[in-house]
Amino acid sequence: MTVRVIPLRAGSCLNLAAITERGAPWRVQAYPAGFTLILHPTRGPVLFDTGYGADVVTAMRRWPGLIYGLITPVQVGPLDTAHEQLRVMGFPPEEVRHIIVSHLHADHVGGLRDFPHATFHLDRRAWEPLRALRGVRAVRRAYLPELLPDDFEDRCTWLDFTDAGVDLHPFAEVADVFGDGLLRAVPLPGHAPGMVGLLAQEEAGLTVLAADAAWSVRAGREGRPVHPLARVAFHDPTQEATSGAALRAFLHANPAARLHVSHDAPEGWT
């Protein structure tokens, strides 16, 4: 059995290219808010994140979400959201029963409320440092609590990490999301607490969904650093650097694997 990975985008954000990659020009650039539809043979349509949603736009119209919108301007239309795109593709929101959440930044959970029947799979370490934050303290962590469903915690299934073994070196832990080896989560913390990537077993081989471990595929493979100003917003810059190095080492050891990151065009996608 294998899965089919379909990369999508739900809106975009504006940022300075020089912030996302040291040495790039100081010009404003649009970056996609990527998410992924995964067609699983027994679980149906599974999402890896959701990108932006209408709730993000609403939150940014009032304090303190207004701060988020000023720092990271967001562009998302009513037809750009994950649930509308999936509906057009023939997957009504009620059919989505599983969403794997890489981390809790607004551009990754902006559409969670649109999928009322989904279970959320994430690392408990992503939730614990943020669960009590409100107001400006939350926005400073790119976290908008109002984006989460009221019953968010009740619908969470915490990823169960075990020893990854030598095959996934240098990743020390892995969580087999559905216990079938098709979708395996690996820790990539630093950019955000408890952030995870996903190893998806497709018919053509392995696809690595690396979330925000890098701003671009090139950076993910070559280790091009962000501007020091960007690191101010990271949860733990040391962890971020370690996770980036682990990702590069894993890709080097698995050269046929395709890499997808959230804010760049997916590698090898046609």
TrEMBL record:
InterPro entries: MBL_superfamily_lactonases, Metallo-B-lactamas, RibonucZ/Hydroxyglut_hydro
MF-aspect GO terms: hydrolase activity; metal ion binding
Domain of life assignment: Bacteria
Family in the record: Belongs to the metallo-beta-lactamase superfamily.
Cofactor(s), by name: Zn(2+)
PANTHER family (alphabetical): 102 KBASES UNSTABLE REGION: FROM 1 TO 119443, QUORUM-QUENCHING LACTONASE YTNP-RELATED-RELATED
Name of the protein in its database record: Zn-dependent hydrolase GumP
Keyword Hydrolase: yes
Protein keywords: Hydrolase, Metal-binding, Zinc
